[in-house]
Design a protein that fits this description.
The structure is a single chain. The protein has one domain (7-74). It is built from four helices and no strands. The protein is mainly α and 77 residues long. 73% of the residues lie in helices and 0% in strands. It has helices at residues 7-21, 25-34, 41-52, 56-74.
């Protein structure tokens, strides 16, 4: 999974997700869980942006954060 923006930009996007999109990360994560399965994060971000009319930068940041947290849960940390 590649991050197409800096870690600082990612942090800023995540901090503004709820205000800009009207939904918090927990809601976006639920939508990703119930959405179609994709092998690539870029495909998942494109689906999220298209399906929910999000700016691609926010969709990518949401997917990236989802994957980071999912890996943390899977690794038991």
């Amino acid at each position: 999974m590649s991050l197409t923006h800096s870690p600082e930009m990612h942090k800023n996007l995540i901090a503004r997700v709820a205000r800009v999109t009207g939904s918090d990360l927990r809601e976006w994560f639920r939508r990703l869980d119930s959405g179609p399965s994709f092998m690539r994060c870029a495909e998942r971000a494109t689906w999220l942006a298209d399906e929910h009319n999000l700016p691609h930068s926010y969709a990518s940041a949401i997917v990236h954060e989802y994957e980071v947290r999912r890996r943390t849960r899977l690794n038991g940390a």
